[in-house]
Structures are given as structure tokens and as C-alpha cells.
Amino acid sequence: MNRYPIFINTMLCIATLLLTQSCYSVRIASKHAIPEPNVMPEGEGYWRDKQVYTLDTTVKLKILESEATVLDLCPDGFHSVEYKVTLGHVLLSGITLGKTKKIKLKCNCVKPQ
Amino acid sequence: MAITSTHLVSNWDTFHQNGPFPAKMVLSTKPEARHIIPVVIDRYNDTADEIRRLIGDAVTNNERFRPYGSTWSLNNIAHQQDRMHHNAFMNIKMDIAPADVHQLSPYAADNLFFFQCGNTIKEISRYLFDKGKSLKTSGASNGQTIAGGISTGIHGSAIDVGSVQDYVVGINLITGPASTDVVYIERHTKPALNNAFAAKIKSRVIRNDELFNAALVGLGSFGFIHGVVLEAENLFLLKRYVKYIKRTEALDLAENMDFPNSTFFIPSEKDSNGNPLRPYHFKVYVNPYNPNEDYVAEVIYKKPFTPGYPDPIPSVRKAVYKELPDFMVMLAAKYNRVIPLIINAMKSTLFPTLDSEATGTLGEIFWDSLHKGKAFAVTIGIDNKATTKALDTFLHFVNTEGPVPGAIAFRFVKATEATLGFTKYPITCILEMDGVLWDNGPGIISYNKFLTRFIEVFQQANISFTMHWGKNADWTFPGLVDYMFGNKKNEWINARCALLTQQMADVFSNDFLDSTGLSNYNTAANPALIVSLDKSGAVDPTV
């Protein structure tokens, strides 16, 4: 039994997994806005004292549509938004000619005044 | 109607991860929406009704009730295991009209503002900025709620100004579930608002210096602080410099505050006679593990506000407490000899950038802090005349019984009138070590032992000191509060017992108060402490 193809396939799977998961995050925050607090601190780092909302969805655009708007988050305004892009997201968008977009973001709203 | 959400929990923790502490229930109240109750004072009173209901519910269930804000205190002072109340959404703000000001008030109406308990320092600074006003001082950052901040005595390093609580001129407390349990207190010698305003917030008035000064740094235990009246001032700018300073110069300035005759000065900050100016703020950073190294001074001067200055935020952004990576701390727990090496190597990130300058408002210079992991902070107040002795005691302690992963700084604040304000000396030198909370290991003193030994060492050196209520200490150390405050402790207890019934005093107590002996109830407290006085000190017949 030749085990070589199994090895190649395994390595290809790992490489694909790594490539599609490799990503970057960008955080955009308002300088003067007051963040909506969470009731109890959670996690570590930037988001620990902030109420976090997440969006992890796939948007499918119709033939004549070129953009999408999501209205569900932060009706009064954003304090900070962090979006993540992976190679998988880019590939999905490329393969579907930009008509299917993966959106993955984390955000904090402004504190109600 | 204000809405309260209920969260059943098993534990609760601080922002700086100093717990977790066991807890059962967290409540969080949001004032009613503006379009439902458009009149701000009605919305405020509606929230007060909801808080009274929650307190009544705690009483009915024979449970304690403790409000908290941003969870920035690094110990269990905000914690209570029965019912905790998260205040941070209670952020109503009100201007004070001239018609609301007491006729004998020393304060100008346009400098007075009423803030509900959950407003953060940043939020207040922003609100005041839009009105051309500023807080007079703040802590080193801006995330604390106003009620939490004054309850623990947050301070900056404004030499001639004081701490945040020193500019609170009125406090609205909810001391129980009844409608008569809403109280507005202020100093009788410096009345701020009139009886008509107190009636608007459905409060009975007590003007009494002794009660007010005790409640000012009330450790969350004088009832529920629903709102405070703050005295602000016209917007101003601060210009910050960071320079090396020789140890001898730093300690001479620390003990004498003689800036005009110091050999340390900022060349561009002199008066018309060429004498160095007295700064608004003076803080010195010390690497505890390199005695031969110069210290770093952060010196800030107050300037009139003029628009158009460069954005200071990029140069003042920071993460308080933690700049040391986790793996270094783990390494340090096993091999404590590496700590001085780490502190030396990381000095440029632990201390502000040398020779940097920044100009901005108070709210901009003392900017946001980011959470970077478990942190500890030990902060003591001493008379500034004792700075050298206290610093040398501290350095000797951490070098002989440590090292521990932290850096030292000292700064200065004018005396507070608050009974248990830890900035009690004419000029208090605040000597502090901030660092990374470490796990116990064979190569390092245990964290708890460090906190206990710290007190023992300073007591053995016969140094009079206080400790910051919101920072780390062995708060169970026998007789600690008596050592720090002497008879002031009893003054504080008596004022609290005069204001609160025995049942409500227990409802507003917690482990921290129990362990410090401050929850003791004196049934013989003088009822005169809650009598409203006129400006001369006689019983006020108008109340």
C-alpha cells in the first residue's frame, strides 16, 4: 500500500485549512464617543469592559446589486468596529465574482445618552 | 419606568481581574427612554423609584445590596455576594440653573452640574467640554464612574487642586426603600443648591459638614449614591513634558515643593522674572531595580484654553498597569532574578516617552486605558515631607524581599476634607507600585505575603501612611484603618450610623467593610449629625 498520496492529501488539507483561516483584523474606534459598558467584565484586552455584539453572516448579492447594508447593529451609533478578513473570505468572494461576501465583525455601540 | 435587568451569576470580577469573587445576582438599571419621559428630572426621579424598589426587594429577602460602576477598583471593595447593582447605564446629566442655587452659595451656577451616578469621567469631561467647562482634576485615566470614583477617592497629581471628591458639592443618596429615604446632603458652610431643587428631586435636605465629609469617601456604604453635584471650571489646557530628573532633585521637590528655586525646570516654563513656574501636576517614575539610574519626571503646566493645538491623543495613549508579556511574568514567578532585567528592558514601555511634549484638555491628557491582563497596584499616601524615607523603605523592601514585577511612581495631591479620604496630609505624596499580578512560585514572594509585609515594613519604619481604598492591600491586617485614620474612623462610623438604620447599614455593608471594621454599628451615634444646619452652624429652620 502506497502511503504517499495519503500524506500529500493530509498536507494539502492542513495547508488549505491554514490558508483559509489566515486572516487579519482591523479595529476602528471613535475617539470621543463613550462605549456601551457590559454589566460584568468579560474576556481580556480591548473588549473587556465593553458590550460586544458580533455579526457572522454571508451576504448574497443579486445580479445588479454591488453592496450590502446591515442595519441590525447599534441603532444609535458605533463606538468601535473590528472586522476580520480571512483568505477563505477573499476566495469565496473571488469565486462568486463578488456576489457572495462573508461578513465577520465585532462591535461596540455608543453608550445610550 | 426605568428598567432593571437581572443576571444570575456564580461569580463576579473586577476590570483588572483581581477576583473572581462569589456572587449570586447582578442587577443593572437603565433610565426610561427620553421619548417616554421627556423631562429630565422626571426621568431621574423615576430611576430613584426603581432603585428604592430594588433596595426594598433586597431587604425583603434579607440580602445585602451593593452598587458598583466600572469595576476599576483592584480589590473587593465593590463586591458583595448577595445582590450587586451595576450603575453604569444611569448617566443622566443636568445643568444647574441660577434659580436652583442656594442664596448663600459660594459657587457660580454656570460651574455647577448634576450627574447621575453612572456617568464616567470621560463622559463627564465630554459633556463639560461641550459647555466650555472642565473637571478640575481626574485620575490618571477616565473610565471610572463618578460615584465609584469619589467613593474610593480617585486622584490625579494636581499639586494644588486635590482629588475628584474635593469638587463634589452635593450628594443625592438613597438610604432605603421608603420615599422618605431619599436625601440630598451638602456642606452647611458651603451650600450649593436650594431647598426648591432638593424638592424637585424629591429629597429631604441635610446641610451638615460632618455628615457630608464622611459620606464623600463613603466606600459605597452610605446608601446608594444616585447623583452628585460637581463644581467645574472654565476649559483649560495642560501642557505635558517628560524629562529625566536626578534623584536628589526629585526628592527635594517632593519634600519642599519649591519649584521656583529648583535646579530642575523646564526652560520654556518660567515667569516674567525668569523663575521656574509651579506646575499643575508633578509625577516621578522610578525603576526600583536600578538605583543608579535617573528618575523620569512627568511635569504638566496649566494654560488658558486656545483651540488649534495638535491632537495629543497619539502620544498619551497607553495601557495602565500591564506592559509585560505573560510569558515574562511566568518566567519571573519561577526565576525572580529576571524581574529586574525585565523591568530594565521594558523601561521604555513602562514609563512615558522621554522628551515628549503634549498639549490637550484634562480629558485628553488623562485618556483611555486599555485592559492588558491581570494587574496589581499598591498605593499609599504619606506626608510629602516623608517622601525620601518612604521611598527608600519601599525600595529596600522590594529589593530585599522581592523583586516583584512592577514599577514605582510618586505624585502629589492637596489635602482632602473627606473624613476617610486617603489624601489626608496637607500635601499627600502618593507612592505607588503598579505591575502585573503574579502567580505564586518558588522563586518569588507570594502576592498575599507581599501585601502583608508591605504594611508591616512601613509600620516598623514608623511611617504614617494611608492606603488607596480602591487598590491592593492586606485589608484584613489588624488595626489597619485605626493606624491610618485614628479617630477619624469613629467619626465616619458615627456619621454612617446616624444616617442609616441598623438594618440598612447592614444592607449596604460588604466583606470589605466587615474586614476593616467599618461596618460596626454604633446605636448611640449622635442624631445631631443628621440635623440640617444653616451657614452659621445653627439648626436650619427652613428645612
What do these coordinates show?
- The complex is a heterodimer of chains A (113) and B (543).
- Chain A is α+β, with helices and mostly antiparallel strands.
- Chain A has one domain (23-109).
- Helix content of chain A is 24%, strand content 30%.
- Chain A contains 2 helices and 4 strands.
- Chain A has a 4-stranded antiparallel beta sheet.
- The longest helix of chain A has 18 residues, at 4-21.
- The model of chain A has no long low-confidence stretch (mean pLDDT 85).
- Chain B is an alpha+beta fold.
- In chain B, 27% of the residues lie in helices and 22% in strands.
- In chain B, strand 11, helix 4 and strand 12 form a beta-alpha-beta unit.
- In chain B, the strands form 5 sheets. Chain B has an 8-stranded antiparallel beta sheet. A 6-stranded mixed beta sheet of chain B has the order 7-8-13-10-11-12, sandwiched between helices. A 4-stranded mixed beta sheet of chain B has the order 1-4-6-5, with helices on one face.
- Chain B has 17 helices and 22 strands.
- The interface between A and B is medium-sized, with 15 and 27 residues.
Quick overview:
The complex is a heterodimer of chains A (113) and B (543). By secondary structure, chain A is of the alpha+beta class.
Question: What are the salient characteristics of this protein?
Answer:
heterodimer, A: 113 residues, alpha+beta, 2 helices, B: alpha+beta, 22 strands
